């Protein structure tokens, strides 16, 4: 047994390890399941080198095992995963970055903001604000302008960006399914199917919107990262990350959540049976049906309002 | 007798209240095995299908470009925003008269399309939740149900103050003045509409009336707590009162606030109210000074807001019943659906009326001690703050409303309506 003083892991590895645990938990993965590096790298939008570092940390904490021919596999139960996550040291700049992002999506801070303003708002050091902003920058969520202020990327919180998002997804998502190298991550597809089927068993009126959004994003990420085309996978992964942010415009009925999940299952079935053209067409139908549908007429006697 | 499920065609007017009130009834009908479909304005495309109902759209008469529509709305906002701050009497010439004219124009344009659509669908029954009759329904001789979901004053009676007046019973001189002004303001639209009815060989209605009671069934969205004493009792076999009519929505996950123990206030003036961004921004600056969490519906204008206080959360649309259920106070414009949802969940109302039924519900909230009212824009910051804080502190009102909500929830209006509709189908 080594008597060396333990080395404190890097904060970005801790943060990534937490993210990996979130993904593993959300997928309902079980002891013995394999964790493909490429899939997790795509999901987190980071390099495979970083993923390996985070896997290594999880191995040191007894969450994963590694074998030459097999790679990393899960050895902790779902209950132990939660305990492990609680035991990880907090990555403070990550918490601040999350708070800044949350406040931006709630329009509590403006689209363009200075470091000084954030320092005052959160009562923290300039260095901590800078670290948090750099973290958001690495996720392509903010950029630094010529005037040294920081500008948030356009989020999916207004009618124009939502419309453009749909137009983009109508092109990219069917293309991902039809890409030459498309190969469905079978194990993750099976796990996701189970989660969706479990969601559909909840009595009518009890559908959880947050859980739906999480599973919906998982589904679309699964197909993007199965495309075998790195450019499609990267651009769709970045885009779906925007969809995971808190969004004041999302509100779905119980019926539509169930209907959308039925469509997800149908697309998976089509892919599994080799009907890629039909699955790509079905994806288009699914995306069109998933548009936020709200009345464009607001009062008796008045004409439509396109807003 | 056919064994197939009865087909009910809902035809709500193009407003949120009527549309979502009908969704609630259709959800209850579905539980009883009936099939409901919706006939609607193209502007409501997708609204009913997201609840699982088939939609049939009336055709658009003219192609209007998006630029033209946006120009229209800019002009509409500039023209009417000041009118919403006028008294009900002063709104007659500026808003009510022109709106009736637009409603009649809609009937003239869409009646032919409705006739073809209903003829093709051949429903067992039509449910009309509107403020005006479409001749197509009478011409097709299909049994029809009238839903009075706008406000109870819509159905005149000697003991009921005039529709849209915001007056109380007993204020005789003001009532007379309002009645005369109302008839004068709506006269051009009324004549135009009667001419249209006559062209379809339908009888002329009384002065100022645009819709007759149904000879089959009428449903009144007027919970007993705010119901009015009528001089003429309405026959029970033709007029059924509803104790609220609340649709089922998915549960709402509250956003995280810095102070999660503070009371929760939901603020929504409907999409029309959201147009007045400057007023909303002024209110939000007051909310910042109140120890409460505010969830505010700002409609399609979210991008107009920045520097939102930490105790305020804005959204473009909320599944209203799911939030009202969690709220300690509901600040709204007096739309009947909003008022009834507040009652159904036992939540006090602060009514700040803009127009139409809002005025009648505002005064009714005060008369029945189910809330209070405040002018929509003519207030000081302290007045708005005081109104909100005193309603949040009014424990006796809260208890009375909670007790009443339990009674209402035992006899939900949507189920009462569905049973009455199915009974009519089986006659």
Tell me what the structure shows.
The complex is a heterodimer of chains A (307) and B (427). With 307 residues, chain A is mainly alpha-helical. Chain A has three domains: 11-87, Arc Repressor Mutant, subunit A, CATH 1.10.10.10; 92-152, Orthogonal Bundle (Arc Repressor Mutant, subunit A); 159-289, GntR ligand-binding domain-like (Four Helix Bundle (Hemerythrin (Met), subunit A), Up-down Bundle). Chain A has helices at residues 11-26, 37-44, 48-60, 78-87, 92-105, 115-122, 126-138, 159-178, 186-200, 209-225, 230-244, 254-272, 276-289, and strands at residues 64-67, 71-74, 112-113, 142-144, 150-152. A three-stranded antiparallel beta sheet of chain A has the order 3-5-4. In chain A, a hairpin with a 5-residue loop joins strand 4 and strand 5. The N and C termini of chain A lie far apart (66 Å). With 427 residues, chain B is of the alpha/beta class. Chain B folds into two domains: 7-78 and 102-177 and 190-245 and 412-425, 3-Layer(aba) Sandwich (Rossmann fold); 264-410, Glycogen Phosphorylase B (Rossmann fold, 3-Layer(aba) Sandwich). Chain B is built from 13 helices and 13 strands. A seven-stranded parallel beta sheet of chain B has the order 3-2-1-4-5-6-7, with helices on both faces. In chain B, strand 5, helix 5 (172-199) and strand 6 form a beta-alpha-beta unit. In chain B, helix 3 (88-121) runs parallel beside helix 5 (172-199). Chain B is globular and about 60 Å long. The model of chain B has no long low-confidence stretch (mean pLDDT 92). Chains A and B meet through helix 12 of A and helix 2, helix 3, helix 6 and strand 10 of B.
